[in-house]
Amino acid sequence: MLKIIGSVLVIAAGGLAGALIARSYERRPRELRELSSGLQMLETEIIYGATPLPDAFERVSRSCRGAVSTLFSSASEGMRTGKGFTAEEAWGNALARLAQVTSLKRDDIDVLKELGAFLGISDRDDQEKHMRLTAEQMRRQIEKAENEARTNVKLWNYLGLSSAVVLVMILL
Amino acid sequence: MEIHQKVKYTMSPFKKNEPEQLHRAEVLLNDIVPVLPVRIRKLFQSLAVYDLSRIVEIRLRQNRPLIIRMSGQEAYLGLEGGLTKNKFDGYLVSSTDIEQLTHLISGSSIYALEEELRNGFLTLPGGHRVGITGKALLEKGRVKTLKYFSGFNIRISHEIKGAADRVLRYLVKRTGNGVYHTILVSPPRCGKTTLLRDIIRQLSEGVPWLNLPGLTVGVVDERSEIAGCYKGIPQRDLGPRADVLDGCSKAEGVMMLLRSMSPDVIAVDEIGRKEDVEAIEEVLNAGVTVLATAHGNGLSDVKKRPALKYLVELKIIQRFIILGRSRGVGTVEDIIDGVTMKSLGVAQC
Fold it and tell me: Which residues of B touch A84 (CB under 8 A)?
């Protein structure tokens, strides 16, 4: 009896662990997509609205959700502290915070960080070029993340469960 | 650190007029220092109050020493803190500094400031002006915008309330119903705009001791220096009855104000071109009082410029206030009656 309960627990734990890892693979492309639509909005604000950057960040933050919204709002707040933070610094700090709470990879954050160096210090045409470049890079990251997700989600779901089963069999 | 203290002490021997000094230093620390690049910011924060209070302009040019202009003299920003007269002890402005400064003065929004860059300057919160040089990008032969910024000139704007006290009684009509058409004449940096600003403020508030009720003053602030607008909001006190058109050309602005804001007085800065004078004539014809400034060392200089000569010879402008610096910035050298061309005698000012 005890053995049965034990093996059920092991299998459940294994399955859950696998599902959790699989979930994080699923989350990354979703978060990337949210980010890239946020950047799209930022581009519109900058190029068509000529909205000053702190205001533009805030507006984008209001129309996003979750971690992405927090990214833009903390960048906006960072610039408004009056302590003389440049957009690059404020954006970098906000990204560092974002990295801690999301399943984004180092590459993804780096793409965004690169944008920071150009944000707001040139005319509209130039801004547009940089925003387009970042959008393109983001699209590639999304593609990569989706490919990874497709293979890894299945893999980890099965792997978790099946390794638990194997473990149970060995223990029995 | 010891040397530091010594420099501070020797640079600040005067203790007179301390509240005014403190106020000026505070303006600099609150409005200007936060937009300076980090390394320069630290050096400024270590300056003595006396030094801070005298700063009029801060000039930053890439790969050149930072120059601080005070009324009537110049100094370099010392590498070890304090101010110095020796070029080799002066802080050298790096390309990183220029980049950071670009970020900070524009709120990282250069793209939103195309119009300002076309004019070569932008206005900081607090009404201070930053002149910018760099590479101009042309479109159809006109400057479209600036790129690769290389030089900045931060002009600290101080409003001096009461600057107009001593001239007001020459401007207000005896009958107490309005003021004379007036032009302030002065070389650059003699307090022309400061005086104009205070005249506007006092007229718009009303001058009880001259029995003048508050007048509606329309201000066409082409160079954003009178009102120091930031995002369209005047940062300088112009009293309760002033309407400001910021960044608008004089010719167009005057017509807009005449049409829609029913002003008693229209104030403009730095007239000189033919269009400006035409705009002024427009105001005169509408029965509205003109208040303007013009560059020049006295009235004879003004008469050398064709457009202004024409205006003087119309004999419609009733008062010319001549400014100079014979007894410090903002000295009123003379006030001339524009009709009789005789001095009203203001030797006591």
Answer: 34-36, 38, 41, 104
**Among A126, A104, A117, A127, which residue's Cα sits nearest to residue A35?**
A104
Do B266 and B280 touch, CB atoms closer than 8 A?
no
| One pLDDT digit (tens) per residue for chain A, 172 residues | 888 898 889 889 988 988 888 888 888 888 888 889 999 999 998 888 888 888 899 999 998 888 889 899 999 988 887 677 888 888 998 998 888 888 888 888 888 888 888 888 888 888 889 999 999 999 999 998 888 888 888 888 888 888 888 988 888 7
Confirm if B48 and B8 have CB atoms less than 8 A apart: yes
- A21's tokens: 């890892």
Tell me what ipTM this predicted complex has.
0.72
Calpha distance A44→A35 (Å, rounded): 14
**Pair B123, B228: CB distance under 8 Å:** yes
B162 min Cα distance to partner chain A (Å) = 31
From B100's Cα to the closest Cα of chain A, the distance in A is 7
Contacts of B39 in chain A (CB under 8 A): none
Name every residue whose Cβ is closer than 8 Å to that of residue A92 and which is 6 or more positions away in sequence.
A113, A116
Please indicate if any CB of chain A lies within 8 Å of the CB of B147: yes
Q: Which among A121, A122, A127, A128 is the top mutation candidate for probing chain B, defined by the most B β-carbons within 10 Å of its own β-carbon?
A: A121
Task: Tell me the two tokens of residue A28.
Answer: 């990354």
Measured between its terminal Cα atoms, the distance across chain B in Å is 45
Cβ–Cβ under 8 Å, residues B182 and B291: yes
Q: Spell out the SS3 assignment of B234-268.
A: CCCCCCCCEEEEECCCHHHHHHHHHHHCCCCEEEE
Bridge partner residues of B322 (DSSP): B185, B334
A127: closest CA of chain B, how far (Å): 8
Residue of B nearest to A121 (CA): B110
Task: Assess contact for A134 and A112: CB atoms under 8 A.
Answer: yes
State which H helix or E strand residue A93 sits in. helix A87-101
Is B29 within 8 Å of chain A by CB? Answer: no
Question: Which pTM value belongs to this model?
Answer: 0.73
CB contact under 8 A, B103 and A51: no
